[in-house]
Specification:
The protein is built from 9 helices and 17 strands. The protein has 376 residues and is α+β, with helices and mostly antiparallel strands.
């Protein structure tokens, strides 16, 4: 799950809008993929953008403060490739990377108007214990944005096209000169006519209403590898949202959660369980049938087995993730059931045995005698 957005930006929960903006500028300058090529920088940059996206707007910030991520999850993921469609972020980026400031003649960075990659998506999937052990195929339903097949992502009605925006002359930005005691400055902002695209559609596609994408729900089969554990993340390429203007789709990340089992628990590659046997079985030894993830198996109980002894069924544990030819073991803890009450015949036989062993068997003595059998 996403981290705390205030912690991501390094501000306290009472931070003002200006504090948030300054923190965002500082971190965005540090982690922008065009500047920072270190592994993980791009993911960090996306987290920073998402945090500022939520906290910079009073309405979404209020929902986040009250409900956390669940209160704003409907806003969807954030992709830095879509910055051209978000005026607030663009104004800050113009400041960070040179589009704001300097003389009236300063040239700002033009918005990206070509194809951009779509957002990555996340899906949480629950598995039962055996599904996690052995893997297999699962069919899932993914709601995501798909490129409109009618207009091929252009947003224009078939047979029509787009024309250069007359307001910004295709730049996607408008500039406004401001005079101050320190000189003249130019502020660059998103063109309000074309929303930064540089072009306007003459006739919108009737299917996607000019968006170039439409919401669909797709059935997808995914392969669950044997040996996955709680929190394992799978990546399904190109099953995220379709990109803008015909850009490639993002990826789908499936997070796996394993439901607890009534019989088995897991410790890395080993499976753990318990069995209960009688004190006579523990003394004399026996063979019992036990449940495993592979079905019922025979387990030999040696004579004189002590309580809490752990017996091993080799190679009946969890397969190694990525190499299911290697498996862990099934570790079985033996619990010995000592009865609270016995009938007269049982008592007579046990008293004879106690006599043979030289054990007293008065009140409380029999219990002491039984206990001594398991602590020799």
């Amino acid at each position: 799950m996403p981290g705390d957005y205030y912690e991501i930006l390094g501000v306290d929960r009472n931070a003002s809008k200006e504090d948030l903006k300054q923190a965002y500028r500082r971190l965005a300058r540090k982690y922008h993929p065009d500047v920072n090529k270190e592994p993980g920088a791009e993911e960090r940059f996306k987290e920073i953008n998402r945090a500022y996206e939520v906290l910079s707007e009073p309405e979404t910030r209020g929902r986040y403060d009250q409900f956390g991520e669940a209160g704003v999850s409907g806003a969807g993921g954030f992709n830095y490739g879509d910055m051209g469609d978000m005026g607030g972020f663009a104004d800050i980026f113009e400041t960070i990377f040179g589009g704001f400031g300097g003389g009236v003649g300063t040239t700002g960075t033009r918005r990206r108007t070509g194809p951009t990659k779509g957002d990555d998506l996340r899906l949480d999937l629950r598995l039962d214990f055996r599904e996690a052990v052995f893997g297999g195929e699962k069919e899932i339903r993914i709601p995501h944005l798909e490129t409109c097949q009618v207009c091929k992502g252009t947003g224009a009605k078939p047979g029509t096209g787009a024309k250069t925006c007359p307001t910004c002359n295709g730049q996607g930005q408008v500039r406004r000169a401001t005079r101050t005691p320190f000189g003249s400055f130019a502020q660059v902002s998103t063109c309000p006519t074309c929303n930064g695209q540089g072009q306007i559609i003459e006739e919108k596609c009737e299917v996607c209403m000019g968006a170039g994408r439409r919401q669909v729900t797709e059935k997808v089969k995914i392969t669950i590898p044997a040996g996955v554990d709680d929190g394992t993340r799978l990546r399904v390429s190109r099953k995220g949202d379709a990109g803008l203007r015909g850009g490639p789709a993002g990826d789908l990340y499936v997070y796996l959660y394993v439901e607890p089992d009534k019989v088995f628990t897991r410790e890395k590659m080993n499976i753990l369980s318990e069995i209960k046997i009688s004190y006579l079985q523990a003394i004399l030894g026996c063979t019992v049938t036990v449940d495993t993830v592979d079905g019922e198996q025979e387990l030999s109980i040696p004579a004189g087995t002590q309580p809490n002894t752990v017996l091993t069924l080799e190679n009946l544990g969890v397969p190694k993730l990525g190499n299911d030819a290697i498996r862990g073991d099934h570790m079985i803890t033996v619990k010995v059931n000592i009865p609270n009450h016995i009938n007269a015949e049982e008592r007579e036989l046990l008293e004879k045995l106690a006599h043979i062993k030289g054990q007293s068997h008065g009140k409380g003595g029999l219990e002491g005698f039984l206990g001594s059998l398991f602590h020799r």
